[in-house]
Design goal:
Blueprint (H helix, E strand, L loop, with lengths): L1 E4 L3 H5 L2 H13 L3 E3 L9 H5 L3 H15 L4 E4 L2 H9 L1 H7 L3 H10 L3 E3 H8 L12 E4 L3 H5 L6 H7 L5 E3 L14 H4 L1 H18 L3 E4 L2 H13 L5 E4 H5 L4
């Protein structure tokens, strides 16, 4: 299968190792992976702060870049959620019915990584090896927008050598929420403190999630405490081998 990697702007600029891990993983499973260089931001940041008209060119770019592919895979439930639930709204907001139609045609081929592995490829054991004590944070968008359910956990449970421990109050938001953390800093900080305490209570060496945005936020809290707990994206664990 010819797969396109939609890396997201955050991962491309701050966490490129996540994208490399996705490529290694999918190639190990026998698939050709392209990284279209013309890809840009999906527009989520614009939409979430009220700039739908300004997001329209980004939605058009997304469709133009990824329409030729059988599958578009992203290591971000947040950005996949935006593609699924915001792009058509943006197209209609600017009165572009042709774009809305193109969005609807492409949308079923856009997958978050764990969803692609479990639902499309039909695998949970990807041949990974990761000998560490790990806990998993289910991000808000992965739970409530992309509806990933337990797919990431099913993949983690099949990793050899892993000691996977349950995160207390796992469904609680970490407090990031994009611009929420900036506009509501005090509330965000309080939510982060609760999440960090839950992580520390597990005794885990590593916190993983499917969105680097949340890992960036929680990781900052963990580093400030000098906790020694590392944050590692799900893709990087799944790409690990002996």
């Amino acid at each position: 299968m010819r797969v396109a990697l939609f890396l997201t702007c955050l991962d491309d600029t701050v966490f490129p190792e996540t994208g490399k891990a996705v490529v290694r993983l999918l190639e190990r499973l026998g698939h050709e992976v392209d990284f279209p260089l013309a890809q840009t931001c999906c527009g989520q940041m614009h939409v979430n702060t009220g700039y739908q008209r300004e997001a329209a060119p980004l939605v058009r770019r997304f469709v133009d870049v990824f329409a030729p592919y059988q599958a578009v895979v992203s290591p971000s439930g947040s950005c996949v959620g935006s593609v699924r639930h915001q792009h058509e709204t943006v197209a209609r907001h600017v009165g572009d019915e042709r774009l809305a139609t193109s969005v609807r045609e492409l949308r079923p081929r856009v997958y978050e990584l764990s969803e692609f592995l479990v639902d499309v490829l039909g695998v949970t054991d990807v041949g990974a090896y990761y000998p560490h004590r790990v806990t998993y944070h289910a991000t808000c968008h992965s739970l409530r927008v992309a509806h990933l359910g337990d797919r990431p956990l099913r993949l983690l449970r099949a990793v050899r050598g892993i000691d996977l421990v349950e995160l207390p109050q796992a469904e609680q938001c970490c407090g990031f929420g994009g611009t929420f953390a900036v506009k509501n800093a005090d509330t965000s900080t309080a939510m982060l403190a609760d999440k960090v305490r839950a992580v520390l209570d597990t005794g885990a060496e590593v916190l993983t999630a499917g969105d680097n945005s949340c890992l960036l936020h929680i990781g900052g809290g963990l580093r400030r405490l000098r906790s020694g707990v590392r944050t590692v994206h799900l893709a990087e664990i799944l790409a690990g081998t002996e």
